[in-house]
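Minimal example, chain plus fe (iii) ion.
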Amino acid sequence: MDMKVAKKKLALKEKYRLLTRDLGWEPTYQNKDEIYPYTKYEGIRIHDWDKWEDPFRLTMDSYWKYQAEKERKFYAIIDAHAQNNGHLHITDARYLSALKIFLQAISPGEYAAGKGFARMGREFPGVGTQVACQMQAIDEIRHAQTQIHALSNYNKFYNGFHAFADARDRMWYCTVPRSFFDDAVSAGPFEFMIAIGFSFEYVLTNLLFVPFMSGAAYNGDMATVTFGFSAQSDEARHMTLGLECIKFMLEQDPANLPIVQGWIDKWFWRGFRVLGLVSTMMDYMLPKRVMSWREAWNIYGIENGTALFRDLARYGIRAPAGWDDAEKAIDHMSHQFMLGLYQWSFGTALHSWIPSDDDMAWLAKKYPDTFDKYYRPRWEHIKKLKAAGTQFANYGLAKLCQTCQLPIVFTEPDDPTRSAQREGEYKGEKYHFCSDGCQHIFENEPEKYIQAWLPMPQLFQDPIGGDLAAWMDWVGLRNGKDNGDFDGSEDQKNFDAWRAMATSNQ
Ligand code: FE
Ligand code: ZN
């Protein structure tokens, strides 16, 4: 009689061990340094790769199962959104500007993060790390896809969505996040983990996905809420991977501390500059607002950041160098950005507008120390110009920061009446910066940043040669449709007309 052997079901932990440790072996005919050529040149010293464990211990089969379930729900909801004329259920078409920034500037960043993690999965020697990086690579590609799919429905009805890939590469406000990701992907593997795992996931994503997604819900946009939650449920894993990497480096060798601190300083400031776009989305672009940028910063920036740096203090890490300057900028940045977007609105694939009296009352309440004093007078002046038929437009070329690529629109941390400008020289050329933070980043790696592609000098090169219409063609901007003041735009008129049709018998 045959003996029946009961097939032993493996515990999850055992499965994970087999998935990871069994995939790793000691090479015999190749030298490890040649297999992993990028792990040493950044100066990080690692003695035992096995100490880096993915705390989630997720196996591939459960990963596919969870993600497939999320995808099924996501596509069911965006399908319902499209069937149910979801494009008419948003509060008001001004809201779309926030989505256009999202699609042009943020979703391509998800894709870049995906490429970066695919590379890191190959370059790191530890098996736990390799598996976690591969999963995150797939997650990030999925985020880019779900966002593009969710927003494609709006593209059928509204302007400004159609050329997001060109915008990402060429538009002046999109090269800010683009240069952030280019900088990260062209760094070494450990720096990449701080750039994305710490700066993008901790500093940016929390402030972007949590409060902004509640903003989407408040404004009736179920498509965005759905991709937001679908992405946010991966974030716990991503943040942990980033944090584990930081702790791993610090635990492996005391000599790693100054290198890690330098990256935390650099990437905090780079992340903070990209966040400027988000501050404007929250304070100005949501017709129905959930919380101000300042309130979001207090929770997701100060509270979470303080807890994080308290946790890291035992390794000798201190808060990032730009932390105090960031705090001083919070009550100013959304206003400075929106004034920037408005004065260059002929060159944006989204609409901006003068805040209404109601909006200004809200802003004054949320920013009692800054709005009435510094920003209301400017908006009132701009309003007068518009009423007189001379809408304010700035056709002068903005001076760009060589590091973050933003126009120089910020003020001095300790004097909101003075424009902040920094200048430096390298190999006989002059470079400009928006802040001390950006200047320090440049000075640490000048050879990297002098190669940066900046959108303004491009205006005088082929195929544009200084011609504004040629530039619009080149960036995929349809003049009079995608750009300019929201008032009187096609988006505004269409939305109002369709909404009226949906709610009346005409
Ligand atoms: Fe993502
Ligand atoms: Zn800068």
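Residues 222-252 form the longest helix (31 residues). The chain has 19 helices and four strands.
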